[in-house]
Amino acid sequence: FNIRARDINYPGEPDKIGFFNIPAFCKIKIYTERGDLIETLEHTDGSGDEYWNSLTSSRQIVASGVYIAYFEVTRDYVDSSSGKMLYKKGDNTFRKFIIIR
């Protein structure tokens, strides 16, 4: 996320960050580089996209820095056309991202 691009990315929502190509049903926990949990998002709409307004659970805007997103699947998800299981409950992964203000 680069603050200089905020008017281009999501007009009217300057601090919005998108997570794309994520499991349809998952929990997203956002941590500081030190490991402090600052926000938890419940992704339950069945899409592959979730958005975050860059606020902590205490309603403070996050500062520049490295952050860690932890994604954990909250329910099994099967592809309706092929019957193949795409995500199994409990599957998880970490991703790092940077915010520059």
Walk across the major sheet and give the strand order: 3-2-5-8
Kindly state the percentage of residues in helix.
under 10%
**What is the chain-wise order of helices and strands?**
HEEEEEEEE
User: Roughly how many Å apart are the termini?
Assistant: 8 Å
Low-pLDDT regions: none
Mean pLDDT: 90
What does the main sheet amount to? 4 strands, antiparallel
The DSSP helix count reads 1
What is the count of β-strands? 8
Backbone CA Rg:
15 Å
Question: Could you provide a short overview of the structure?
Answer:
The chain is built from 1 helix and 8 strands; from the N terminus they run H-E-E-E-E-E-E-E-E. With 101 residues, the chain is mainly beta. A 4-stranded antiparallel sheet has the order 3-2-5-8, with no helix packed on it. It has a two-stranded antiparallel sheet with strand order 1-4. Strands 6-7 form a two-stranded antiparallel sheet.
Explain this structure:
This protein has 101 residues and is mainly β. Helix content is 4%, strand content 44%. It has 1 helix and 8 strands. The strands form 3 sheets. Strands 3-2-5-8 form a 4-stranded antiparallel sheet, with no helix packed on it. Strands 1-4 form a two-stranded antiparallel sheet. Strands 6-7 form a two-stranded antiparallel sheet. The model has no long low-confidence stretch (mean pLDDT 90).
